[in-house]
Design a protein that fits this description.
The protein has 5 helices and 8 strands. The protein is an alpha+beta fold. The protein folds into 2 domains: 33 residues, no CATH class; 111 residues, 2,3-Dihydroxybiphenyl 1,2-Dioxygenase, domain 1 (Roll), CATH 3.10.180.10. A hairpin with a 5-residue loop joins strand 6 and strand 7. The longest helix is centred in the first third of the chain and has 16 residues.
């Protein structure tokens, strides 16, 4: 208990006063900070490769975004991935960056979110690089991507 009292999560006075609402708020804030969730990019589904390339080129022309081609998509960096063919999500996907995918999955599982089995991708060192969540909001699927 002394470790909790001296840490960032809470203070002895909060415990002694039984201010569990504030302790819970700080604990949740601490958990979000550990995961460091952030928006990496928005993937937009296109019917065909030509549409994805044209859309990426338009974003580059209008806003000066750097183009980067991948086998299945065109990136208009920062922030847009134009899929050459439809992928997960009715409209596309949202990539969320995290510090540690397995840890973030445990956190999200407690909130009722699971993974789409078979979507896991790994780095050469065996750490998870990406996984899709069983989650769609406003026609967009979500995947986690490790910062590492």
């Amino acid at each position: 208990m002394d470790a909790l009292c001296t840490g960032r999560v809470t203070e002895r006075a909060l415990i002694e006063s039984k201010d569990f609402e504030e302790i819970s708020r700080r604990a949740e804030e601490f958990l979000f900070a550990i995961h460091n969730f952030s928006l990496l990019h928005i993937g937009i589904n296109n019917a065909k490769e030509e549409d994805a390339i044209a859309a990426a080129q338009k974003l580059a022309f209008l806003f000066g975004f750097k183009l980067r081609e991948r086998p299945n998509s065109m990136f208009a960096d920062p922030g847009f991935e134009l899929m050459k063919t439809p992928d997960f999500g009715k409209n596309g996907h949202v990539a969320i960056g995290v510090n540690d995918i397995p840890r973030a999955l445990t956190f999200l599982h407690r909130k009722g979110i699971s993974v789409i089995s078979g979507t896991e991708r790994y780095n050469d060192d065996g750490s998870m690089r990406r996984v899709y969540l069983d989650l769609e909001i406003s026609g967009f699927a979500f995947h986690l991507r490790s910062y590492k």
